[in-house]
Specification:
alpha+beta, six-stranded antiparallel sheet
């Protein structure tokens, strides 16, 4: 049977109506399925995604250039190791950009290097972390044991990392441990400590504060120069950076 023009239009309209009803039904079912999921679950999924992004942001490197360099700043050079800026100087040129010469100390190896950079060259700041810890003891292999002051966990530090501070770290001393990529790379002493003079020459009569000095062995193991009037057994305050006597304690 031949379909007239009006019949064709009616049939096409019917097919479109069926398709629209089917699509609406599918959308309704999908919405119903989503509504069946507890709102707390949907919120948790969103929070987890946000937290992951935030963690990545905290671990990202911070870029600085030669104009930002300061003494004491710690940067990560191309070898992936942390370097502390010891000193720097800027040399201006009649033509061309200025150059910056920087002296670094490798915090993992203890070595120093000196490099010259063009003005504007970029560095990545080393992501280091400082944690307070108390020295508890040293074993027969010269490993230093510390207790994390926040978590109370034991931390083992090789004597090579302690370096020239070996004779200054005393049991019970509170220090700061410097971490780089979750590994201890440096031990920072407190700025001054109170220690006892365990060995020194007897004081001579007539000694004044500035007239005479002498070597003294301290309870921590270090040896410094002290005024001649000090006696064995006295408690003194010492500057750990300069390794110098400050005052009686």
């Amino acid at each position: 049977m031949m379909m007239t023009g009006s019949m064709k239009i009616a049939t096409a309209a019917a097919l479109v109506a069926v398709a629209l009803v089917g699509g609406a039904s599918a959308f309704t079912n999908s919405a119903a399925q989503r509504s069946m999921v507890p709102s707390s679950s949907r919120a948790v999924a969103f929070v987890q995604t946000t937290t992951t992004f935030s963690a990545r942001s905290q671990l990202s490197m911070v870029a600085v250039d030669t104009s930002d360099i300061k003494n004491g700043m710690t940067v990560e050079l191309n070898d992936g190791e942390p370097y502390r800026v010891i000193s720097f100087s800027i040399m201006k040129q009649a033509r061309g950009a200025a150059k910056t010469t920087i002296k670094f100390k490798n915090l993992m190896k203890g070595t120093t290097i000196e490099n010259t950079y063009r003005s504007g060259e970029k560095f990545e700041k080393a992501m280091i972390e400082k944690k307070a810890a108390q020295h508890t003891y040293k074993d027969e292999n010269d490993n230093f044991f510390f207790m994390d002051m926040e978590t109370f966990e034991e931390v083992v530090v090789d004597s090579k990392i302690v370096q020239d501070k070996v004779t200054w770290v005393e049991e019970g001393m509170e220090c700061n441990l410097i971490y780089f990529k979750e590994k201890v790379i440096e031990v920072l002493l407190p700025p001054h400590v109170v220690v006892q003079i365990v060995e020194t020459e007897p004081s001579l009569k007539g000694n004044t504060a500035n007239a005479h000095t002498k070597p003294a062995v301290l309870s921590c193991g270090a040896t410094i120069t002290v005024p001649g009037y000090l006696e064995q057994g006295e408690m003194i305050r010492v500057d750990t950076d300069k390794k110098e006597f400050m005052e009686r304690a």
